[in-house]
Design brief:
One of its GO terms (molecular function) is ATP binding. This protein has 229 residues and is an alpha/beta fold. The protein contains eight helices and ten strands. Strands 6-7-8-3-9-10 form a six-stranded mixed sheet, with helices on both faces. Strand 4 and strand 5 form a beta hairpin. The longest helix is centred in the C-terminal third of the chain and has 16 residues. The chain binds adenosine-5'-diphosphate (2 copies). The site of one adenosine-5'-diphosphate has 6 residues, from strand 6.
Length: 229
Amino acid sequence: PTAIQIRDVVKRYAGDKGQEGKLALKGVSFDVPQGGIFGLLGPNGAGKSTLINILAGLVTKTSGTASIWGFDIDEQRRNAKRAIGIVPQEIVFDPFFTPYEVLENQAGFYGIAKSLRRSEELLRAVHLADKRDAYARTLSGGMKRRLLIAKAMVHSPPILVLDEPTAGVDVELRRLLWELVTQLNDDGVTVVLTTHYLEEAEQLCDRVAIINHGELIANKPTREMVDMA
Ligand code: ADP
Ligand code: ADP
């Protein structure tokens, strides 16, 4: 199947007290093909997070359709959800859980049998094996971001979506996160990420869609995008 299919998606947020709400997406359509690293590039306020949150089931679209791995996000919610792992922008952990517990709890949410869990392997993959039993509150920002990626991969989804994975991080951590994303992609995971850094899209993505004011204004292989600029 196509990894992600978005068709004519409109989102109007509810307005305050009779005021008309913000039109965050004005009828967006695109496909994310399987296997690559797809970048959704756009300035702050363009509608990137809104789109990701719709896919994550956190925001309800006003109209249009979306499917993940061939599963309609409304009609086949459970299957759609299992096909995707979401790395949110904000870091949200219970500070008194350890990385190992965070992953085990997540596996529990998904009903994954103990014998089929891969918490240790995931911790190794994100270079956190030595922090297995540290309290999450003692981890650095970079370690927490890596733990979020491992958490999103607990149910082995074929698609990983990252919302602004490197916003506000230093150069060194950015490189490390790029390496992790590339490694996952090499292992067969289709990656979608949002970014407002052109350089990130150029370096990491093989296809880039540009979104501005809730409209898709380009969608091309990265090399053609770079020629344009
Ligand atoms: P991006 O992720 O590209 O920065 P967002 O999707 O966060 O953009 O925001 C798109 C537009 O929708 C912005 O104008 C933003 O202010 C508005 N918006 C986002 N979330 C909400 C919300 N919960 N309620 C009302 N307006 C929102
Ligand atoms: P359910 O719909 O089965 O009750 P929830 O939506 O409550 O599941 O999610 C359970 C846990 O899984 C929460 O920690 C939530 O943040 C997380 N989660 C849900 N969907 C995803 C996903 N696609 N990728 C990563 N984590 C997810």
